[in-house]
Write a structure and sequence with these properties.
Blueprint lengths: L4 E2 L2 E5 L6 H14 L7 E6 L4 H15 L3 E7 L2 H10 L4 E5 L8 E7 L8 H11 L16 E3 L1 H13 L9 E5 L8 H8 L3 E5 L18 H10 L3 E5 L6 E5 L4 E2 L1 H15 L6 E5 L4 H10 L2 E5 L3 H11 L3 E3 L5 E3 L8 H15 L3 H4 L8 E7 L3 H6 L1 H14 L4 E6 L5 E7 L3 H17 L5
Parallel strand pairs: 3-4, 3-5, 4-7, 8-9, 8-10, 13-14, 13-15
Antiparallel strand pairs: 1-2, 2-6, 5-6, 10-11, 11-12, 15-16, 17-19, 18-19
Helix pairs in contact: 1-2, 3-5, 5-6, 8-9, 14-15
Length: 446
């Protein structure tokens, strides 16, 4: 993890942690780096934050000043940038988004020519450039780059999504919560085209309301909406639509772990779960592994971040992976989490099985889970502290295989996340409190 770029890009409060100057210099570097032996072509997308314009124009200025041509997609989901980068053979893709963060934050995510998260070597070279005073050469004369409106490529991504569906949704009443973000027009267009009767909330972005009491991080709004309208199913996306959580007809949340369960079972039955393996992260619920054990499905665990999930999938040829938060990757059709694709494949399962979502999730019994974020003085010190490690080991020993403890540093904030899973919430609360008490005693907390 670098100084600026964490597990999911360079993220922070705009003009405090992430400034227009940062964006300009990132554009300058990428235009030069990918254009050393040809005129670079870079594609840029953004979410609906007001600050996305500031960062977009600064990136375009930097890219074109270095001789690259910048192709502008305007508002599009993050996976749309990945798709266009790969499909149209761009040197690099840039997404301007802070995902599920509030509107005053923003971020810059980078994709390589394959539409995969940018490699660490390039990120390291970029960060070194950001910290130095020297400049890369400016382009001159006819070598200066141009900006190109590329809305046609956004429409091709929309067509690609529709093409993935194998069944009609006619007769299905579907709710969508677009988080006032990147999916605010596209998700409805997909579901309407596939025949669903579609009801939408979180589809009135004003630049300041992205993720505000909406989307996958505030799914209670969709839960109430599904019940109020008597819908068959609901899907909630986050600000840049690379996540999807579902709500069944009874208003129950179907999170990323439950989605991995129902999709893993479905793909195994159809013979499409290559290597009989699902890739998860260390944050997946203990109950998911118990359910997979009963189904005879193998699993791998990675660090948190869809980047790491995809790396494991690509290296080993696995087809399904994801996170509890709703980043689900179907590697046959995408190189990153795609919320709309997740919703499309869940609808295929519902339609083909003839069963409602609450029936399909039967067999997945979630263990009580408690996660507390604690602000620390230094993440590395807290994670290596011997007393903290001993407290975690003692809790694991007490759980004796009937649960687990997990303590990990946040990839984007000065936080340590302390999580417990056990057969009762009382046990979870006890073990989390014990570990945090040790951190406090050791003077590790802010």
């Amino acid at each position: 993890m670098g100084k600026y770029f964490g597990t999911d890009g360079f993220r922070g409060e705009v003009n405090v942690d992430l400034t227009a100057e940062h964006a300009w210099r990132i554009g300058r570097f990428l235009g030069w780096y990918f254009g050393r032996d040809h005129r670079a072509r870079v594609v840029i997308g953004k979410d609906t934050r007001r600050s996305s314009y500031t960062l977009e124009y600064a990136l375009v200025a930097g890219l074109t000043a270095s001789g690259a041509d910048a192709y502008i997609l305007h508002v599009i989901p993050t996976p749309g940038v990945s798709f266009v980068t790969r499909a149209d053979q761009f040197d690099c893709g840039i997404m301007i988004s802070a995902s599920h963060n509030p509107y005053y934050d923003n971020g810059i995510k980078l994709f390589d020519h394959n539409g995969e998260k940018m490699d660490e070597q390039t990120i390291a070279a970029l960060e070194e450039y950001l910290d130095q005073n020297s400049e890369v050469p400016f382009a001159r004369g006819a070598d200066i780059g141009v900006a190109v409106d590329n809305v046609a490529a956004r429409n091709r991504y929309l067509g690609y999504l529709i093409s993935l569906a194998t069944v009609s949704y006619r007769g299905k009443r579907v709710g969508l919560d677009c988080a006032n973000g990147s999916s605010w027009m596209m998700a409805k267009a997909v579901f309407d085209a596939l025949g669903a009767t579609t009801y939408v909330i979180g589809n009135a972005p004003n630049g300041l309301n992205i993720n505000e009491n909406a989307g996958s991080t505030h799914i209670e709004g969709l839960q109430a909406f599904v019940k109020e309208k008597g819908l068959d199913v609901g899907f909630a996306f986050d600000g840049d639509a690379d996540r999807c959580l579902a709500v069944d007809a009874n208003g129950n949340v179907v999170d990323g772990d439950a989605i991995l369960y129902v999709m893993g079972k479905y793909m195994k039955e159809r013979g499409t779960l290559d290597h009989n393996t699902v890739v998860t992260t260390v944050m997946s619920n203990f109950g998911l592994y118990k359910a997979f054990d009963r189904l005879g499905i193998s699993y791998e665990k990675t660090a948190v971040g869809d980047k790491y999930v995809y790396e494991c999938m690509a290296k080993n040829g696995h087809r399904l992976g994801g996170e509890q938060s709703g980043h689900i990757i179907f590697s046959k059709v995408a190189n990153t989490g795609d919320g709309i694709i997740t919703a499309i494949y869940l609808m295929e399962l519902i339609c083909n099985s003839g069963k409602p979502l609450h029936v399909l999730t039967e067999g997945f019994v979630r263990y009580p889970q408690l996660l507390k974020n604690v602000r620390v003085i230094d993440k590395n010190t807290a994670m290596k502290d011997e007393a903290v490690l001993a407290a975690v080991a003692a809790a694991e020993a007490e759980l004796d295989g009937a649960g687990r403890m997990l303590v990990r540093a946040s990839g984007t904030e000065p936080l340590v996340r302390v999580m417990a899973e056990a057969e009762s919430m009382e046990l979870c609360e006890k073990h989390v409190a014990d570990v945090i008490a040790v951190m406090r005693k050791r003077g590790l907390l802010e």
